[in-house]
Design goal:
The complex is a heterodimer of chains A (693) and B (148). Chain A folds into 5 domains: 146 residues, Four Helix Bundle (Hemerythrin (Met), subunit A), CATH 1.20.120.160; 123 residues, Histidine kinase CheA-like, P2 response regulator-binding domain (Alpha-Beta Plaits), CATH 3.30.70; 55 residues; 180 residues, Heat Shock Protein 90 (2-Layer Sandwich); 130 residues, OB fold (Dihydrolipoamide Acetyltransferase, E2P), CATH 2.40.50.180. Chain A contains 25 helices and 22 strands. The radius of gyration of chain A is 34 Å and the shape is globular. The relative contact order of chain A is 0.06. The N and C termini of chain B lie far apart (44 Å). Chain B is globular, with a radius of gyration of 16 Å. Chain B has one domain: OB fold (Dihydrolipoamide Acetyltransferase, E2P) (Beta Barrel), CATH 2.40.50.180. Chains A and B meet through α14, β21 and β22 of A and β4, β5 and β7 of B.
């Protein structure tokens, strides 16, 4: 199929729209009154429907359509937002996600969603409202059945159209708003539209149509369109005439109220919400008794919807291209270095000026190129609130998910990999960590458990922590289980530290839950998490206090990422020390260096800090022994430990791109990687953690 | 058909090292570079001269003279770096000079003869006699894997 080339784009965009749906649904749950949010969701769903129909994924389009109907009913006040309705909409979104995943995996996106469709239908037909007063409910049900299929926002007119309408009504013409709904299986929509217009124009004048005539011709509409029409005929006649056109499902003709085209633009928001009760519409009664409330909420939503700014415009670029761009840019940096040295040699003022300007521009360019590959972890985190919500409902637990540091940036390649391990860990925390509400109250904890998801940069790594205030890990139970499963022997178990025992749960074939639930799997999960993270060059550790909760901490490398470093010089060699490890730099007097147990130390702000001579560590060849009275020290930190690195001189701070030394040189002591400097030379990055063993 | 097989060639890059000629299959060669700034990597093997910036890729450099235990010389204008790939490794070999591409008939390759007094004998996969030249074919796996 020709559509293949669009498939990737389709999948990406669908994911985005679904994400927007979920986010907004969660938001809606908090503010059920805010119809602006419903509109956002509706828009996402609508786009998704259009896209999937174009791509030929019927099931996907169909389910989205059903969901859209419900949303439409919500925003038209046919049904109110409650937990039940939201659950089902969430369920649909889940199904849609599954379908998209299936398509992404090369499937056809088909899925049995009858149950959900039935539920959606039920909501759409207003059945949940039956719980309220019966009379009203029946009335409303009728209204909903008919209305949901063709209800659309009322027409709005510009000044010119208003004048025309006004004049025609003065000349005893009738003004109508006609809504024509075509049958879903209508093949020649444009032709039917033409026939409708043909009939109308024989009997009067079409003032306006929504969508516009052009769009109608191009079939840029769903099943329905609206027309403002002036005629001397009666409503019934018009309706009958249009119904004669085949493949027309439904026609409703409403009189255009006088105010609708006389009031000035300032009050337009009012017009929009004014439900006309002077004329009796031909088709169905509108629930008039709710008018007042509708007006209120609509106005409220109008004011809030303005605060929803439209998302920024983006285009998609493959990572491969970004890699190429990055490498090309680095080439350019090298050439810039050469140009700079040439221009200082030649000393031509115009050349100097040009090179300088180019350098500045390239500095800006560099920033952009470097940050382009970085993605905030939010792209992974944003799916968790919904997951936690549904999990806590399934497990009857009360859970509050807090996310900190969602803006922390990670390289895209790492981002793509960490999603699944994180899902596993969060599920684990909720399933095994957080206790049931009763248990929590009995233990004197707040009823609601908290899961904290925290991301932050530190050193050459990004840390992601999942902290819960649940039961913690029962070490005796873990140990007993580990021995019975043969993961450790009884003898070696005695020598294990608490931390080592806790981390046994990451061993393969382990499950401490008394009852195996389908949430956190059958204990195959955590060791998979461990392997995935280790394959990314990261590590995972667990800290747990029984009764108070656990922290799962993931450390991920910033592969191909930008870090700030301090460049230092030792003889002629340049080294980069990650800024995140540095506490401060200092110049010390040689006489201030003390000896303690064969280790040179200094007294740094009341603390004894050992000194590490980088030229010794790195065997830097010296032409002659340096004999300065003063020495430059970089004070670095690893956890609580401090150390002073002695260097020849400081060059300055710089943002650099982290590069690996390649597979051939995989294990070089105290070097965590390399970077390419502005002059095109390679500088090595010092691994402070390894220096402070 | 049989004649075609007999006539099979291997395309190789020929380089010089201490007045001997060596060959590496073209398929393993990414390019030949002039000598450039090499950043020393501390605590690496003695023959690893350091790393270079090869168009944005940090590439380790091995001095083949030192790798083979030959006396090292100063790098001069004709000194070249041959960028070699093997599996997922990419390294550069420092050689005295490199300026020839040749087709060696498969038939002309002899399995490692007893080259008396050759220190680099461990790294050789074979030799090829071409008219009056003797090309030593390198076994890259051995060159790249550290000594045990």
């Amino acid at each position: 199929m020709e559509l293949n080339q669009y498939l990737d784009m389709f999948i990406e965009e669908s994911k985005e729209h679904l994400q927007a749906c979920s986010d907004n649904l969660l938001e809606l749950e908090k503010n059920p009154e805010d119809l602006g949010i419903v509109n956002e969701i509706f828009r996402s769903a609508h786009t998704l429907k259009g896209m999937s129909a174009t791509m030929g994924y019927e099931d996907l389009a169909d389910l989205t359509h059903k969901m859209e109907n419900v949303l439409d009913a919500i925003r038209n006040h046919k049904i109110s937002v409650n937990a039940e309705v939201l659950d089902i909409v969430f369920e649909s979104v889940d199904h849609l996600e599954e379908m998209i995943m299936d398509i992404a995996d090369g499937g056809d996106g088909k899925r049995d969603v009858k149950a959900t469709v039935a539920k959606l239908k039920a909501i759409e037909l207003g059945q949940p409202i039956l719980a309220q007063s019966t009379v009203q409910a029946i009335e409303e049900t009728v209204a909903t059945v008919v209305e949901t299929t063709f209800d659309v926002p009322q027409l709005q007119f510009d000044d010119y159209e208003k004048t025309v309408l006004q004049q025609s009504s003065e000349q005893d013409f009738n003004a109508f708003e006609i809504t024509v709904v075509l049958r879903e299986d209508c093949l020649l929509k444009a032709a039917r539209v033409f026939m409708v217009f043909d009939i109308l124009e024989k009997n009067g004048d079409v003032i306006k149509s929504v969508p516009s005539a052009d769009q109608l011709e191009e079939e840029n509409f769903d099943q329905q369109f609206q027309i403002a029409f002036i005629t001397k005929d009666s409503m019934n006649e018009i309706q009958k005439k249009i119904m004669k056109v085949s493949e027309v499902e439904h026609v409703s003709v409403l009189p255009l109220s006088y105010e609708q085209f006389t009031t000035s633009t300032v009050e337009e928001t009012h017009i929009e919400t004014t439900v006309n009760d002077t004329f009796e519409p031909v088709t169905t009664p509108v629930a008039v008794n709710e008018n007042h409330q509708i007006n209120d909420t609509k106005q409220k939503s109008n004011s809030t919807s303005k605060s929803h700014t439209s998302s920024s415009k983006t285009i998609r670029v493959s990572i491969e291209r970004l890699d190429i761009l990055m490498n090309l840019f680095e080439e350019l940096v090298i050439d810039r270095g050469r140009l700079q040295s040439i221009s200082t040699e030649v000393n031509h003022s115009e050349l100097n000026e040009t090179v300088e300007r180019m350098s500045r521009t390239m500095g800006d360019l560099q920033n952009i190129v470097l940050t382009m590959r970085m993605v905030p972890v939010d792209t992974v985190f944003n799916r968790f609130p919904k997951m936690v919500r549904s999990l806590s409902r399934d497990l009857n637990k009360k859970i509050n998910l807090e996310i900190i540091g969602a803006e922390t940036e990670l390289d895209r390649t790492v981002i793509d990999e960490i999603g699944d391990p994180l899902v596993h860990l969060i599920r684990n925390s909720i399933d095994h960590g957080i206790e049931s509400p009763e248990e929590r109250i009995a233990n004197g904890k707040p009823e609601e458990g908290t899961v904290l998801l925290r991301a932050f940069h530190s050193g050459n790594y990004v840390f992601i922590e999942i902290e819960d205030d649940g039961a913690g890990i029962n070490k005796e139970k873990v140990l007993r289980k580990a021995i019975s499963k043969g993961i450790v022997t009884k003898e070696s178990a005695l020598t294990l530290t608490d931390k080592q025992i806790t981390e046994l749960i990451l061993a393969s074939g382990f499950s401490t839950a008394e009852v195996i639930s389908d949430i956190s799997g059958r204990g195959v999960g955590l060791d998979v998490v461990k392997t995935t993270i280790e394959s990314l060059g990261g590590s995972i550790s667990i800290e747990s206090t029984e009764g108070a909760g656990s922290i799962f901490s993931i450390q991920l490398p910033l592969t191909l990422s930008i870090i700030s470093v301090m460049l230092v010089e030792i003889e002629t060699e340049t080294y980069a020390i990650p800024l995140s490890s540095i506490i401060e730099t200092a110049i010390i007097k040689k006489s201030d260096i003390l000896n303690a147990h064969n280790q040179k130390v200094i007294d740094f702000r009341g603390k004894v800090v050992p000194l590490i001579y980088l030229d010794d560590v790195f065997d830097v060849p010296r032409k002659q022994q340096l004999d300065d009275e003063y020495q430059s020290v970089v004070i670095v930190r690893k956890g609580e430990k401090l150390a002073g690195l002695i260097v020849d001189s400081f060059i300055g701070q710089q943002e650099i791109v982290l590069k690996s030394l390649g597979n051939y040189l995989s294990n070089i002591f105290a070097i965590s990687g390399a970077t390419i400097l502005g002059n095109g030379k390679v500088a090595l990055i010092v691994d402070c953690n390894a220096l402070m063993k | 058909m049989t004649s075609v097989v007999d006539q099979a060639f291997i395309k190789v890059i020929v380089f010089q090292l201490a007045s001997k000629e060596y060959a590496i299959p073209v398929s393993n060669v990414q390019g030949i570079e002039k000598i450039m700034h090499i950043t020393r990597v501390p605590k690496a093997e003695r023959y690893v001269k350091g790393v270079i910036n090869l168009r944005g890729v940090v590439t380790p450099i091995i001095d083949l003279r030192e790798r083979f235990g030959l006396p090292s010389t100063e790098y001069i204008d004709s000194t070249r770096i041959i960028i070699v790939t093997l599996d997922d490794m990419e390294v550069g070999f420092v050689v005295d000079s490199a300026n020839d591409v040749m087709d060696i008939p498969v038939g002309a390759i002899e399995n490692q003869p007893n080259v008396a007094g050759s220190i680099e004998v461990d790294f050789i996969s074979g030799v090829a006699k071409m008219e009056n030249r003797l090309l030593i074919l390198l076994q890259l796996e051995k060159v790249l894997n550290p000594d045990n």
